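Section 4.2 – Deliverable D4.2 (structural model, holo form)

The reporting period included a commitment to supply a predicted holo structure for the target in complex with nickel (II) ion. Inputs used:
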Amino acid sequence: MPYTSSITRTYTFCAAHRLHTDQLPDDLNQKIFGKCNNPNGHGHNYTVLVTVQGELDPRTGLITDVDALDRLVKENIVNRFDHQHLNFDPAFATVTTTGENLARLIWDLLVDRIPSGRLEKIGVIETRDNFFEYIGVPKEASGSVSNRIKEN
Ligand code: NI
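Output (structure tokens):
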């Protein structure tokens, strides 16, 4: 049964990137990516939206452990990318650093680690005019908040 409740947390990091693929000649890179292909790269203040859906814990009314989610995203996403050049990250060795690919990578890095509930989608705001969203293969919810509390 699909869940109807979700929580979205936002996180920010600053990073540089250059849109370029070695699979295309330089002139086509320039044509496709425009100024985003400039050799020296450029920076963005990225905002990442992490949406977790799940059942409400009947006692707390919460879907997930927000503190644990924040730690997860900080350790695996923010610390990894903040003030870095995305093109030099191993995950982007063979794929371009588009917002589309970044959203998908963030999904892959988080989907198996959500404290409770399950990852519904990842949003990436790159600029005022660019918002990307990725919805991957859903995972089973990893247990309710109450189960987690009992385990502790
Ligand atoms: Ni850019």
